[in-house]
Amino acid sequence: MPAAEVTSLDELRALHAAVLAPSFPPDELEDVEAMCADLVAGRTVALVSSSDAGVPVAVAVGTRSEQVMLLSYLAVAPGTRGGGVGGELYDEALRRWRDTFDPLVVLAEIEDPDVHTSAADDHGDPAARARFYLRRGARALPVPYVQPALAPGLSRVPGMQLLALSVRASVVADDDAWHLPTEPLRNFLAAYYERAEGEPPTDPQAAAMLAPLRAADELVVGP
């Protein structure tokens, strides 16, 4: 069944409970009501794939900004993983978001498999997740990425990778290197942190994360 846009808050709440919550640790999962508020405001977009019987089996959630999109979540319902539905939804989400929003870059944040070495049955295998994205052309950005604390009472998540999943054709060089301007990336991460934590990312940990984006006007990311 083709992917459908999620427009109902009740549907988003149900997907959060049935698909997202079993797939991510609490510190990596945004509060459902915050996600609903962003859906209403147009900052969040979501697609769902369902079985022939109409049962949701996968969801993709994206967060929009002026030039940068974040694939906040891509998850397949427990019991249906490994059948290819996640890859199909991923391809469809990127295609739709490129056509609709024309972002400079679509990002994703994943656990670095060199740091998060144990595969948790409930939340998936970090190494398998990294392979999923990399074999679809994603490129890791040279940034010591730390996910912000997504809500009061939650913690930051260090040891993450920031991936570029897709870029605008104008930043692709003849040798297939991606020349990403750093200012939009800095602005996106600063806004993400301030929205999640309530204050700008000025502490030493955040400063170290942003340092590569302040040191040059562009990141050159090879294939």
Provide a count of the helices.
Answer: 6
- Taking all residues together, what is the mean pLDDT? 94
- Binned, the helix content reads 25-40%
Low-confidence stretches: none
Number of strands: 10
CATH homologous superfamily label:
Gcn5-related N-acetyltransferase (GNAT)
Describe the sheet with the most strands: 8 strands, mixed
The CATH topology corresponds to Aminopeptidase
So what's the CATH class? Alpha Beta
Strand content: 25-35%
Structural class: alpha+beta
Radius of gyration: 17 Å
Shape assignment: globular
- State the order of secondary-structure elements, H for helix, E for strand: EHHEEEHEHEEEEHHE
> How far apart are the first and last residues' alpha carbons, in Å?
33 Å
Q: What is the count of structural domains?
A: 1
Quickly give the CATH architecture: 3-Layer(aba) Sandwich
